[in-house]
Amino acid sequence: MDFFKNSELHIDPNIQLEGKVGWKSPSNIALIKYWGKYRDQIPMNPSVSFTLSQAYTQTICEYKTKKKDDNKISIDFYFEGKQKPEFARRINLYFKSLLDVFPFLTQLEFEIFSDNSFPHSSGIASSASSMSSLALCLSSIERNIFNIHLDEDEFLKKASYVARIGSGSACRSIFPKISLWGKVNEIPESCNKYGIPMEDYLHKNFKNYHDDILIVSKIAKSISSSDGHVIMSDHKFKEGRIQQVNKRMHFMMRALETGDLEKFGEILENEALTLHSLMMSSEPAYLLIEPNTVKILQRIESFRKEKKLPVYYSLDAGPNVHMLYPNSIAEKVTEFIDNELVKYCKDGDYIKDYLGSGPKEIDFS
Ligand code: DP6
C-alpha cells in the first residue's frame, strides 16, 4: 500500500462525527531557492530553508459529517474573521486534489478559520505557513477519525507530503529549524515529494540564528510565485540554473554542517540575487525588487565590511529583505537597523524573527 494514499478511509455513514483541530505553523526562508516546478509541485531543483518562529499562520478546522455524501467539497472559510471567497476557491481545489490521500473529505463539512501573526498585506508570503497549518489540520483529522497510529516522524512526513500538494515551500515549514526538500544525491533520505528535517545536521553556530524581515512594500506582488514557477519552465537559463543549484546545494550543506558563516552568507546572497535575475531575464521579464530594496542590500554589504560582522541578506519572491545573523551580534544589528535601515521600510516596519521549533498543535481539551 502507498504510505500516503489509502482509498479505504471512508467514514461509516451511520456514525455522526464532529470535531475541531488546530495548528500554528510558521513561515520559512529558503537559503537555496525552489524556483521552477513540474506538476503537483514536484520541484525542478532541491531547496533548503530555515523555519521561522514569529511569522506564522494559525488554522482551526471544525468538521462534522454530512447527512449524505454528495461527492462535493463543502467549506466555509474565514480569514482574519471574514469570509474570503478567493481563498475559499483555492482551498476547495486543494481539497479536491487531495481526494486520493483523504477520500473522506467529501463526507465532511468544514468551517476553517485562518489568522496570520504578521500583519495582513505586510508583503510577506503566507502560502508556506497557511498551507502547512492546513495540511497539519487535515492530517490530525485523519488521525482522530480513523485512530491511525503513526509515530511523530511518520505523521510529519505525511503532513509534509500533503502540504507540498498545496504549496511547494509549505512542505519545508513542517520541521523545526531547518528542512530540505528535493532529491540531493548525497542525502539518501531526501525526496521530491516531501521535506525532511535537518536539525541534527545544523552546526551550533546557527543556534538561535536571526532573520529580521524588513518590509519595503506592503503591496501584493504583480506576479505570484506560482506564476513565476510556470514562467521558469521554459526559461532560457533553465539548464544552467539546475546545474548551478545542485553544486550550490552541496556547498551550502557543508557550510551549514561546519558552521562556516562566511561561505553560508556568500551562497545565501548569491541565491537571492540569482532568483531575482532569473525573473528579470525570463519571458515575460518582471521586476519585484524596489529602489529601497537595493539601498538596503547595499547598506548591509557595507555594514558587514566596515564592522566585520557576519550579517547577510536574502530575498523571497518580493521586495522585502531578510537579514540573517547570529544571536551574538543581535544588539549591534538592531542598532544598525533602527539607525540606518528603518527609513527604507514602509511605515518603518520590520519583523524580528528567528529560527523556530516548528508547528504546534492547538490543545482544545
Ligand atoms: C521564491 O511555494 O509559493 O519563495 O509551489 O506554486 O505554491 P507554489 O510556490 P511557492 O514558491 C516559493 C518560491 C520562493 C522560494 C522558496 O521558498 O523556496
Features:
single chain; 365 residues; alpha+beta; Ribosomal Protein S5, domain 2; Alpha-Beta Plaits; 2 domains; 8-stranded mixed beta sheet; 4-stranded antiparallel beta sheet; 8 helices; binds ligand DP6
Helix-strand blueprint:
Layout (H helix, E strand, L loop, with lengths): L17 E15 L4 E2 L3 E2 L3 E19 L8 E6 L2 E2 L1 H13 L10 E9 L10 H20 L5 H15 L11 E4 L13 E3 L12 E5 L10 H8 L5 H21 L2 H20 L10 H17 L4 E4 L5 E5 L4 H12 L8 E5 L5 E2 L4
Parallel strand pairs: 5-7
Antiparallel strand pairs: 1-4, 1-14, 2-3, 4-7, 4-8, 5-6, 8-9, 10-12, 10-13, 11-12
Bound molecules: ligand DP6.
Ligand DP6 binds next to helix 4.
Summed up:
This protein is an alpha+beta fold. The protein has two domains: 183 residues, Ribosomal Protein S5, domain 2; 149 residues, GHMP kinase, C-terminal domain (Alpha-Beta Plaits).
Number of helices: 8
Could you tell me the strand content as a percent range?
15-25%
CATH architecture title of the largest domain: 2-Layer Sandwich
Rg calculated over all Cα atoms: 21 Å
Low-confidence runs? none
CATH top level label of the largest domain: Alpha Beta
